[in-house]
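Reading is simple: each integer encodes one residue's backbone shape. An example follows:

___
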Amino acid sequence: MSAHSQDHSLGPKRRSFLQLSAAAVVAAGLPIAAGGRAHADGGPTFTAVFTPSDPTSGIQAALDAAAASGGTAATVVIPDVGQNWVTDPLLIDHTPISNGALKLTVLFQPGVTVQARPGAYPDAQCLLTIDGGNAARSTTANRGFGIVGVTLSGYGATLAMNKSEYTTGEQRHVIKLVSAGDIWIEGLTLRDSGGDGIAVTATKGNYAVNGYCGNVTVVNVHCDNNRRNGMSVNSCDGMTVSGSAFTNSNGTGPSAGIDFEPDQPLPALKPPSPYTQPVYNRLANITVTDCFMGGNVNSGVLVQSAWLTGAPTTSPIGITLDRILIGPQQAAAGQDAPEPSFMYAGPGDQGKDPGGAVTLSNSLIRTSPNSGSILVAHSWSGGVDPNGGVQPPTGTKLKLTNTASLDLGNAAGTYKPFTLQADGFSGAAPVSEYGGVVFSNFLMVTDQAPPFMQAIDDTTAHSTLANLSGTLTVVDPSGVSTSLGSSPRNITFAITHMPALPAATVSVAASAATVAAGAPIQLTFTRASADVSAPLPVSYAVGGTAGQRYDFDGLPGAAVIPAGQSSVTVSFGTRRPDTGTDTRTVSVTIQPDSSYTVGSPAAATISIT
């Protein structure tokens, strides 16, 4: 089967689940083409044996044999057998991995599809669960995680479920991580779940295990057509997501690209238990770069952190979204108002906010007729600083830096291009003071009727908008105005109004015409303009014979030339996941836009040898 095409048929149906012994697994040093991560620190390789009547047993037996191998590392290979592996739920919960004694790598070869068996996933069953949370205990080696040290690498491979079958519920995820640490997920397509493509969660009842996942890396993954979200992050401290796409989430709420949404804390226990304080989820040390979130029914990015109200300030919120493209999203049957493409709902309780920041930088928000732009809800602003202008550390900030929002062609809906509101988002109580947004060279381009920014007070809470600072440019041919509620305080931002963006001609050039697989590629987008005072978003299409998120890292489809600069450089990596020796090309072409004129060269083509 070609590395660039996959057979998505269901294949033969499976008989009842059967665990094969380790003897059914071939332990061999199978050669693996250079691609993503290699074997985990050496160790034996176990190749899953395909049995048409029972593909589940071949994969699970290989996982079990690797865990029982007795070494410090092992690799499991899922080979391309020319048809799908149609499986029941798969589980990695082995004691050596829970204890931190064994590092496990699972390699899905190019062309592999692991497909959920129809009828085999009632309730909350997931295709692949990585979970030691129920039985595990904290050790020096596992650093308190329920399970630690698992790599899933699968350039050109797919893990898929049967979404049309799941008409209720929201918990049938493709991959579920539970209080897991040192997890690497790379190159896979994860689609058609009854829940999320990836769910990053914490154990619900084991106080001896960390109440969060940590050191999770997601690289060149595509989560598509999942019922709930592309990825849900309930609890994580330490996460890097790059080169990935989260698209077409639809079926049940929130239906977002990425949803950062903590669960309620575990309750404090009475003495003599040592756990006399609630155990909160975390959203800390999270970075998302070079990603695309589009075609989702709800927001491209949704942050709902109300359950972090009361969380300790020693674990502040820390989410950085850099060089991403949000939108446009899709319309859904019965959706009666445009949904914001980017939504942030803070903890929102004065004196009980863990602090920190959510930062959106060097990124583009592009709306469609069914999706608004930005909503900031239920975010305690930190109170008014008597010294003026500086927000106290106990209020979580939203920072918008060198980021552009193109809010064009929207019908009048619930939200203005930039909306702030105090009322109880997702059932949380309204706050008396809300806001806390820091702008730094933020650009809003809109053709909606003014005002472009609207604050919605809550009369029962006697709420007040406060603490908006920084610099932003608003491009609106009808003028610029704001509606900031009844008695706004500490509003110090400076708005520059333009009826249109300054004339600019944009071109693109590559640093080299040919690179060897494994070498990086650099693209530079340049604007020729007499006025570079505002950021300029540039949209581009990616084509060629090379596969995105296969032969080269995923690209968001937009680059933002920062305010005050004439160019921006985009870098991405290349690889050869399969054994082919042909030359493959990457072509990046600037797309026409009302914000600029396409100049020459309008495209750059690079050969990967």
